[in-house]
Here is the input.
Amino acid sequence: MEVPKVFGYIGLATSVLLFTRLLKAVYIYIRPSSLSRYCKEGDESWAFVTGASDGIGQGFAEELCARGFNVFLHGRNADKLRRIQESLRKEYPTRQTKIIIYDASQIDASIDDIASQVGETTRLTVLINNVGGMGSMMPCPYVNLQDYTFKDMQTILTVNSTFSAHITRVLLPLLLKNQPGLILNISSTTKFGIPWLAPYVATKAFAIGFGDALSAEMRADKRDIEVMGVIVGSVQSASNPATPSLFTPTSRAMASATLDRVGCGELSVFGHWAHRLQGVALDVFSQKMFQDIATTQVRKLKLEQEKLK
Here is the structure.
């Protein structure tokens, strides 16, 4: 075979591969959601949202009620949760909500009691592992690893990973009983490696790895439980009071976009299409180059936060 023809075939195959990947990426964001699969008409289907007292968690609670679910609102601040509960009652009078108070930073064996609070007769079909953050490190969350105190580092690890793993363990029997079921593990673009946030970044990578393994386990055991990791970029919230923009959606818009990805067939996915556009950088540049670009931005934020101390 002539050399020019070989390169021609290679070019054609590469073009087909890239076009196929592009079509797949676009399809993920235009296909209809399969969320309704977990909310049977005539049944009282329930979703459990961790960290529902504000931000994306509150957005999930609002969107799930709008889409026919009753919702367990988890958090540690009873007053905040009651205000959200009252707001949901007014906006969605036919939906039910229940409050679950548990401090994700102070877990022990009592977390097992949450299963009884949900109840054996409740048709729980959705778990959204959303709780997380760096609240304990404010006003400046950007810290060199060696400068973390034991308490601060342990709190970050517990809130962002240990709690999610345990609440999944506790509620999984109920999801299995009521299958098909859905588990969404909320991660972050920081999982690709951002300086001065090492413990937090590790927990976001944990969310994806934990979900990947659990998904494989469910398929191996022939369980009808969909497990999907959700990669989230910049979102307007109480902890990030930015002006909403193309690449910084509101918390509710982020929650809505995430629920629209349900059933896409991916183990992990950028929840919002705009964040996927930003993620194209990872398809073009090496991870180290991506980290170097991100470091420039994070350094500016770090200096700004340090001035507020």
Remarks:
- The chain has nine helices and seven strands.
- The longest strand covers residues 123-129.
